[in-house]
């Protein structure tokens, strides 16, 4: 069985950003040489997510509005987590809703997506260096 590991790094310009990472994940699949297997992609931080959905800009804006309604960044004082001196209580909750990781089947050397599926990195506490792990196994 082949095994391949790669990290992607991000330093997004805003507190919250949404980055389509489908291309670098597809590149990792090519680099792995795996034709039949599984590709795991996970955020390595507890204030960011990796999720699969449409890359349509209106939908991404809808996600951001929805998450901000569920867990507004401000007032900072509404989160007990921020009593630690941090200001990212909302980011932990947003990450939980949007998830930690995705797993995509690899078939004939390609990510075996359904219609319109794209892999996104969702940042909820950005403006600093963060990482995503890609792990690919198979033959
Ligand atoms: Zn925190």
Q: Largest sheet, if any?
A: 5 strands, antiparallel
CATH architecture annotation name of the domain at 2-57 and 99-138: Sandwich
* Content of β-strand: 35-45%
What class would the helix/strand composition place it in? alpha+beta
> How do the strands of the widest beta sheet line up side by side?
1-8-3-5-6
| Helicity range | 25-40%
H/E element sequence: EEHEEHHEEEE
Radius of gyration: 16 Å
Distance between the termini: 5 Å
Mean of all residue-level pLDDT scores: 98
Secondary structure tally: strands: 8
Instruction: Predict the CATH topology of the domain at 2-57 and 99-138.
Output: Jelly Rolls
**Any ligands, ions or cofactors bound here, and which?**
zinc ion
Salient structural properties:
alpha+beta; Jelly Rolls; binds zinc ion; 139 residues; 3-stranded antiparallel beta sheet; 3 helices; 5-stranded antiparallel beta sheet
Q: What is the topology?
A:
Layout: E1 2-10, E2 17-20, H1 22-32, E3 37-43, E4 48-53, H2 57-70, H3 89-98, E5 101-107, E6 110-111, E7 118-123, E8 130-138
Antiparallel strand pairs: 1-8, 2-7, 3-5, 3-8, 4-7, 5-6
Can you summarize this structure?
The chain has helices at 22-32, 57-70, 89-98; strands at residues 2-10, 17-20, 37-43, 48-53, 101-107, 110-111, 118-123, 130-138. It has 139 residues and is an alpha+beta fold.
């Amino acid at each position: 069985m082949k095994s391949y590991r790669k990290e992607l790094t991000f330093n997004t310009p805003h507190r919250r950003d949404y980055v389509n990472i489908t291309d670098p994940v597809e590149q990792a699949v090519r680099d792995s040489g795996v034709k039949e297997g599984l590709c795991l992609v996970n955020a390595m931080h507890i204030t960011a997510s990796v999720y699969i959905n449409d890359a349509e800009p209106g939908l991404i804006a809808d996600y951001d509005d929805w998450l901000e309604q569920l867990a507004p960044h401000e007032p900072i004082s509404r989160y007990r987590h921020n009593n630690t001196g941090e200001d990212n209580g909302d980011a932990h909750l947003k990450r939980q809703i949007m998830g930690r990781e995705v797993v995509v089947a690899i078939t004939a050397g390609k990510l075996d997506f359904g219609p319109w599926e794209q892999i996104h990195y969702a940042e909820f506490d950005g403006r600093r260096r963060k990482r995503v792990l890609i792990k690919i196994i198979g033959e």
